[in-house]
Structures are given as structure tokens and as C-alpha cells.
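User: I'm putting together a small comparison set for a docking exercise, and I want a reference complex before I start. The sequence is below, and the ligand is uridine-diphosphate-N-acetylglucosamine. Could you produce the 3D structure with the ligand included, as C-alpha cells?
Assistant: Of course. I'll restate your input first, then give the C-alpha cells for the complex.
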Amino acid sequence: MDKLVIRGGNPLLGTVRISGAKNAALPCMAAALLTDEPVIIENIPQVRDIETTRKLLAAMGAEVELGYGRAHHRTTICARTLAAPEASYELVKTMRASTLVLGPLVARCGRAHVSLPGGCAIGARPIDLHIKGLERLGAKITQEHGYVEAVTDPAKGGRLQGAEIVFDKITVTGTEDLLMAATLAEGETVMQNCAREPEVADLAALLNAMGAEIQGAGTSTIRVKGVSKLHGARHRIIPDRIEAGTFIIAAALTGGDVNVAGCEPAHLTAILQKLAETGVKTVVKADSVRVMGDQPLAAADLNTEEYPGFPTDMQAQYMALATQAAGTSIITENIFENRFMHAQELVRMGANIKIEGRRAVVRGGTPLSAAAVLASDLRASASLVLAALVADGETIIDRVYHLDRGYENIEEKLKAIGAEIRRVGNIFPKRAAAPAQS
Ligand code: UD1
């Protein structure tokens, strides 16, 4: 299993280019299931979750071509026929976002058979809101043997029916799943209390380019006039705001000077505002943020919220920063119930953090020292990388496959701006077997 070895202490200097947003690319790839024509998506990041989605779509019978580098990080997906509108447990268990195929499949094929995702490291994460919404759109849903079976009513021509949907709770992939389903429903759908994340608006931009009639994506009320057919389209994915935020914190933490290029600063407002409170100096241009980490860091409390609030996906990285800020920061996690797995690993590196339910109390300013640590989920891994960049000595981060799910080429990008980081295979060779005792 791969590990990252990081020697801390170098200030990061130079320019880093941000990749396309994984969380926008995943629903956009699922959206290609809604048409029998090719959908071309550019700026796809080369990360493991994209590869999982490729496998998922291919298993249903879609043709998926993926090309990186000079091929513009482009994928062409053609779901001419979908022999098996199914998502198996094998794939769903490795990536919960696989449930994004539920809405498109039932809308296009009149039937979907998708594994329930189960819990994950950061909390229970049910999909009840996806299911309730599809029922509002007229799907009949049954759950058996760990799978959801959704079918449309043959008496209604096998089409979903437009409806009013009010989400009990704001859900990002729930909004995306139902938005995709509603595009092919008969009549109008009005969805309220929707997620306002930029990734939802990006998905809607693709769907509209495919011939959908969606208004209001990116606000809490979305209106969709159903159409009977969608066609092929070409779309470019927005930059990854979480990757950008992670590099901004890396620059600030290490006292570096980094130009975070190819990002969308308008999507980073809450992050930049919070970092300004901690004393981080930034210069914001149209598509870049320069971070000058020459000021001491000061503690600031943080609440994670739905967009446009501070993202839960940046909470772990912010905690790494808080360990080095003078004073006490209280970090409150409002989105997921169990998203402090990184705290104990940071404590092993010398941080002073106490967890009280959904609150973490971080007493900052304690020096960090290198240790062998374990990544528990995608963003937790990023926080350990950040801590390692300022720790004294060589930190070894195990289970970096979590990081590979969502960060493109992170060690190459960090190395290019001065970090001492390398990836190794099994660096703890098995001890030679002891000689047999007689
Ligand atoms: C998405 C992001 C993830 C991010 C999260 C919150 C993708 C692929 N993933 O995940 O990176 O951390 O948004 O910004 O875009 N909930 C229910 N019932 C449901 C659905 C959700 O109770 O049917 C709850 C969840 O348990 C959680 C909250 O709603 O407490 C928000 O979850 P949600 O927005 O759905 O997260 P994801 O879409 O899975």
C-alpha cells in the first residue's frame, strides 16, 4: 500500500495550477446517462473517483473514453444503449457518489437497481432524501438485499412525473440526483431547499447544454421543465475549490509565497474570509489567488456550513492551520457527525486538540513533530499532509489511497513548489522469518 513520506520545514514558493473539480465531474459523468448521444467533458481531474465512475458507467454498457494531459483531461461518454441499468455494491462501497446514477437511470430507462451505500468513516450518510424525491416524481421504490429498485409507472408511459419537492435537509448529491431525474420527467418540477454549491450550477450548465430547461441552479429553488429527450453536448468542468483551498492553506502554513492559479476565487469567498481572520494575506485576481504567508497566524473559530458557508470539505485542512495559530480556535462541524478522525492523528504529531461532540477545541501554537500517521478519509489525509509540511522531521502517511480519490498528482504539485515529499510502496519490509525453534 502506498505511503507518503514528507520532510517538513520548507516554505512553499512558486505557482500551482488547480485541476477540475472532482465533485462537479462526478455528477456530470452521470448526466451522460440521460442521452444516447456522446457527451464530451473537459478538465476532468485524474483521480481515483473518476476511474471508479468510468468503471460504473462502462458496467452499464456506456462507452467511456478517458484521456489526460494533451487530451485536455477529456472524457467522451456515449450511453447509446444501457444494457444493465445497475450499480453494484462492489463499486458503490468504494465511492458513495455512485448513487448519483440512480436518478438518471430511472429517468432514462424507467428502471434502476442501485446498491445502498452504507455508512462511511465520516458518518451515517443515508440516501433517504434521494429516495423520497424520486417517489415524489412518481417512481416506485423497493429496498431488498441492500439494493434500491426504482421503477416508473408503465401507465404513465414509463416517464417520471414533474412534482414539487422540498428537501427536509440540504443535500448536494441529493439535489444533483433529482435535478438529473427531473430533466426527463413529464411536466414541471420545482425543488426547494436545494444545495447551492457551485458544483450543482455546473451540472445544470451541462444539462442545459444537453437541451434541458433548468432555471435557478445555484440558488435554493430550482425549476425544471421536463423534456422528452436530451442530446449530446460539450462541457468544461469548473476548477476544484477544495483543492485550491488546500493549497492556499499549505502556502499560509509554511510561511510561503504561492500563486494558486487556474482557480475560481468567487467560489472561495468563505475560505478566503476565514483565512483573512487568521492573518493570512492574499491578493485575488480573476482566476488566481496569491498567498503570502509572511504574517504570524492567529486563532479564529470556524463553523462548517452549506455553500456559501465554509465547506466541511475544508474543515480538516483548517484544523491543521489552527494547530499553528496563536490562541484557541473552536471548530464546529455542522454537516457530518463524525468528521474529526484527523484530530487524533494531529494530536500524535503534537497538536493540542480536544473533541467535544461536534466541537473541536484547538489550542494552537504547539510545534508539530513528525510521526507515522494513518489517513482515514479523503480530506483527513489532506490535513495530515499539511501538518507534515510544517512538522519537525519525516512524517509517514499511510493509506494515501484516500488522498488519491480526490487530489490530482498532489505530490508532484507540492514538490514543484518546494516540498520535500515522496511516495513509496511498502517501506516497512516484513521481518525475516525467525528460524524455526527446535
Ligand atoms: C457532497 C460532497 C462531499 C461533501 C458534502 C457536503 C460530492 C460527490 N460529495 O456529499 O464532498 O462533503 O457534499 O458538502 O459532491 N443526508 C441525509 N439524507 C440524504 C442525503 C444526505 O440525511 O438522503 C445528510 C448527510 O448524512 C449529511 C448531510 O445530509 O449529514 C449533507 O450531506 P450531502 O450534502 O448529501 O453530502 P453528499 O452529497 O454525500
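Residues 23, 26, 96-97, 123-130, 169, 171-174, 199, 311-313, 335-336 surround uridine-diphosphate-N-acetylglucosamine (CB under 6 Å). Residues 48-60 form the longest helix (13 residues).
User: Thanks, that's exactly what I needed.
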